[in-house]
Design a protein that fits this description.
Blueprint (H helix, E strand, L loop, with lengths): L15 E3 L9 E7 L9 H15 L7 E5 L3 H12 L3 E7 L4 H9 L3 E5 L4 H16 L2 E2 L6 H9 L1 H8 L6 E5 L4 H13 L4 E7 L27 E5 L1 H15 L5 H16 L3 E7 L14
Parallel strand pairs: 2-10, 3-4, 3-6, 4-5, 7-8, 7-10, 8-9
Antiparallel strand pairs: 1-2
Helix pairs in contact: 1-2, 1-5, 2-3, 5-7, 6-7, 8-9
Pathway: Amino-acid biosynthesis; L-cysteine biosynthesis; L-cysteine from L-serine: step 2/2
Family: Belongs to the cysteine synthase/cystathionine beta-synthase family.
Cofactor: pyridoxal 5'-phosphate
Length: about 300
C-alpha cells in the first residue's frame, strides 16, 4: 500500500483505452484518453493545478489570498477544489446557462460562484473577471493567456500519450477551448516526432458545444499557435451530440459533448487512413450534463 499520497497526487496518468465498436477501419487503432478519471473529473485538473502551483511558487499569490477566474465549467471545478487544498479562496465567474451540476459542484468545494447573463457568454464572464481583478485586487489566473495552462500538458499529457502508445501515435485529436490541451500536447509530441498529425475540433458556425469554441478575434487565447495544429475540423452540434451518445451506448464511455466533438473528428480521420494510431481526448464525465438535453 502507498502511504503519504494526497488527492492532488492523483492528477494525471489517466487511462488510455482502445475503442472496440465505433471504428470500422480495422487497419487503424483508436484510443481514448479518459480525463474524467482525474479527481476533479476533467482534463482541466492538470492546468488548474499547474497554474495555481506555479503562481504560489512565484509569489504571484500568497496563502489566504483570493483568485478569480472566468470559466464555462470544468476549469472552475478544478480550481475550486485545488485552491482550497492549497490554502486559497476562489471566485468563479461563469455564464448563467452552465449546467446546474457544475455550479453546485464548485460551491460544494467552497468556491464563490458569480453567474453572468447567458447572452454575453464566456466573453462577458471574462470581462467581469478583469473588473474584479482591478477593483478588488484579486489575482486573475487567466487561463486564456497563462502559459502555465499549456505547459501543464507539455509536462504531463504529451509524455503520457507518447509513453502509453510506446511512441507509435500518429494522430492526436483534441477539442479546442482555451486550447491549452492541444498546444501543450502538440508541442511535446512534435518534439518527439514531427510527422505526428495534430487535429483540433472547433464548432461549426452557429453550433453551441460546451468546452469547444471558435473565438472572436479579440478573445483568441494568447498562447494559441495555429502552426501547431495541422488539421482543424468543424463539428456541428448534432454530430457532437450523436458521437457522445454513441460513446456511452457502444463503448461504455460516459462523457460530455466536447468529448463527442473530439471523437467525431477522430473517427473522420481514422476512417480515412490506410493505417495509424489515433489518440483522442475524452475531456470529462457525462454526469455533469444530466440536467441538459445531451442524452435525450
Amino acid at each position: 500500500m502507498a502511504y503519504g499520497k494526497t488527492i492532488l497526487d492523483e492528477i494525471g496518468n489517466t487511462p488510455l483505452i482502445e475503442v472496440t465498436r465505433i471504428l470500422k477501419n480495422k487497419n487503424v487503432r483508436l484510443f481514448l484518453k479518459l480525463e474524467g478519471n482525474n479527481p476533479g473529473g476533467s482534463v482541466k485538473d492538470r492546468a488548474a493545478f499547474n497554474m495555481i502551483n506555479e503562481a504560489l511558487k512565484r509569489g504571484d499569490v500568497k496563502k489566504g489570498g483570493t483568485l478569480v477566474e472566468a470559466t464555462s465549467g470544468n476549469t472552475g471545478i478544478a480550481l475550486a477544489f485545488i485552491s482550497q487544498l492549497l490554502g486559497l479562496n476562489m471566485v468563479i465567474i461563469m455564464p448563467e446557462n452552465s449546467t446546474e451540476e457544475r455550479v453546485k459542484t464548485m460551491r460544494a468545494y467552497g468556491a464563490e460562484v458569480i453567474l453572468t447573463p447567458a447572452d454575453i457568454g464566456i466573453e462577458g464572464s471574462r470581462d467581469l473577471a478583469y473588473k474584479l481583478r482591478d477593483e478588488k485586487g484579486y489575482t486573475l489566473l487567466n487561463q486564456f493567456e497563462n502559459d502555465d495552462n499549456w505547459k501543464a500538458h507539455y509536462k504531463t499529457t504529451g509524455p503520457e500519450v507518447w509513453k502509453d502508445t510506446e511512441g507509435e501515435v500518429t494522430h492526436f485529436v483534441s477539442a479546442m477551448g482555451t486550447t491549452g490541451t492541444i498546444m501543450g500536447t502538440s508541442t511535446f509530441l512534435k518534439e518527439k516526432n514531427t510527422d505526428i498529425t495534430i487535429v483540433g475540433a472547433q464548432p461549426a458556425d452557429g453550433a453551441r458545444i460546451p468546452g469547444i469554441r471558435k473565438w472572436s478575434p479579440d478573445y483568441v487565447p494568447k498562447f494559441f499557435d495555429r502552426s501547431k495544429v495541422d488539421v482543424v475540423i468543424d463539428v456541428s452540434e448534432a454530430d457532437a451530440k450523436l458521437a457522445t451518445q454513441r460513446l456511452a451506448k457502444e463503448e461504455g464511455v460516459f462523457s460530455g459533448m466536447s468529448s463527442g466533438g473530439s471523437v467525431y473528428c477522430a473517427l473522420q480521420i481514422a476512417e480515412s487512413l490506410e493505417s495509424g494510431v489515433v489518440v483522442a481526448i475524452i475531456c470529462d464525465r457525462g454526469d455533469r450534463y444530466l440536467s441538459s438535453s445531451l442524452f435525450e
